[in-house]
Design brief:
Elements lengths: L2 H20 L3 H32 L5 H5 L13 H13 L8 H7 L12 H14 L7 E3 L6 E5 L21 E6 L3 E7 L10 H26 L19 E5 L6 H10 L9 E4 L1 H8 L10 E5 L5 E5 L2 E5 L15 E7 L4 E15 L6 E13 L6 E6 L1
Parallel strand pairs: 1-11, 5-13, 6-9
Antiparallel strand pairs: 2-3, 4-12, 6-10, 7-8, 8-9, 10-13, 11-12
């Protein structure tokens, strides 16, 4: 399977999965999700097999090896086998990148980055794919690639259609735009720990470890920022927004969770924002709701298991996103005001990044440790907060 065939199949499956979500066809979505994962696994397995075969044959300079599995064309300097091996030596052994790549570096180095060597194209693509696979929130938000400094409008209300008689006009409505947001540059840095054994790894083994380390760390940092980022040195999170009037619900410390609380949250959500809005809370908070019943004795929270075998949680028919480690658990008593659950349409959050990640290796003079750092430039903001309903336990 070539890169072009793989990407075309993947894009088609992603579009079909999105259509299932838009049509509330969750069974269809689960099936498409399973097909996506199988396609990724098959392509990665094929790439690994080819890399291992090339290593056994010692055919490190063949055009087939250069093209394969890197998901990069041979003309891509940062996707070539030569650059991949140079990058591995740089990260593992601090060997300088050869001078023949200096022209390519001049084309990508900008004032917003503090590192030079760019992660090889094939490794970068694998990092992005793994981030999409393991992320809980990343798959739900809207991702863009706007240039830093670009200003886009934010929405306040949804327009409505009007019935008119033949030949009659209609009152022109305002677009509902009350302001704008501007995407800036925020650096996301992680330190990648590489042991001595990495220096003697094969290229495929090194890239797999590097992908896992970088993707895992960046997913956690990005998703934490999406939920509760301050907006100063990182993206502005959903919970950093002030909900619309009447949509910031509070319960006093010591109040037990109840059916009435959920009814109040549902009532606060405008009907125009029903579609796509989901509950977000920790698993512990969800289990606190799980035992509640309505006036007829029916459970208000449910756990179903789709064809993938993964639990699918819902409350009053609305999907639940589990955000362990990103939001506080519900406890009867708190010492400070704490948001324990919220409703939101994650598609109304935009994460803006070009997914270009660079790396740098340097020595810590105080500890004599080798620090391997990866950096990505990103920003994110809510563009429409009208679907946000929060539940806060007050002190």
């Amino acid at each position: 399977m070539t890169k072009e065939i793989y990407l075309n199949k993947r894009k088609a499956l992603v579009d079909e999965a999105q259509a299932c979500i838009d049509n509330s066809d969750m069974k269809g979505y689960v099936a498409k999700e399973k097909e996506l994962k199988k396609l990724d696994e098959d392509f990665e397995a094929q790439a690994t097999a080819q890399a291992n075969l090339n290593a056994l044959n010692g055919n490190v300079s063949s055009k087939a090896a250069e093209f394969y599995a890197n998901k990069a064309e041979p003309s891509d300097d940062f996707g070539s086998l030569e650059y991949r091996k140079a990058f591995m030596n740089y990260v593992a052994q601090r060997t300088p990148i050869p001078d023949n790549f200096s022209n390519a570096f001049q084309n990508v180095t900008t004032s917003t980055g503090d590192v030079s060597p760019v992660i090889p194209t094939t490794v970068l693509n694998r990092i992005v794919e793994k981030m999409e696979n393991i992320g809980t929130v990343l798959n739900l938000v809207t991702r863009t690639n706007y240039k830093g400094g670009l200003t886009i409008p934010t929405s306040t209300v949804k327009p409505t259609a009007t019935w008119v008689n033949e030949g009659a006009g209609v009152t022109i409505q305002k677009s509902g735009v009350d302001g704008t947001i501007t995407f800036t540059y925020h650096k996301l840095k992680i330190a990648v720990s590489m042991t001595l054994e990495v220096s003697v790894m094969s290229l495929s083994a090194f890239e797999t470890k590097f992908v896992n380390d970088v993707a895992d760390a960046m997913v956690k940092a990005l998703e934490q920022a999406i939920i509760s980022g301050s907006g100063t040195d990182r993206p502005k999170g959903i919970l950093a927004e002030t909900p619309a009037t009447g949509q910031a619900l509070q319960i006093a410390s010591g109040t037990a969770l109840s059916y009435d609380i959920l009814i109040a949250m549902e009532s606060a959500l405008p009907s125009a924002y029903e579609n796509g809005a989901v509950y977000a809370m920790t698993k512990k908070t969800f289990m606190a709701f799980f035992g509640l019943t309505d006036d007829n004795g029916q459970p208000i929270a449910r756990i179903n298991y789709g064809i993938s075998g993964k639990p699918e949680r819902s409350i009053l028919g609305r999907d639940v996103v589990i955000l362990d480690n990103y939001i506080a658990n519900y406890t009867p008593t708190v010492t400070a005001n704490t948001i324990v659950a919220f409703i939101f349409n994650f598609a109304d959050y935009i994460l803006n990044t070009n997914y270009e990640i660079t790396a740098k290796v340097y020595e810590d003079n105080d500890t004599d440790d080798l620090i391997r750092k990866a950096v990505m430039i990103t920003d994110g903001k809510v563009v429409d907060k009208n679907s946000l309903v929060t539940l806060t336990v007050t002190a």
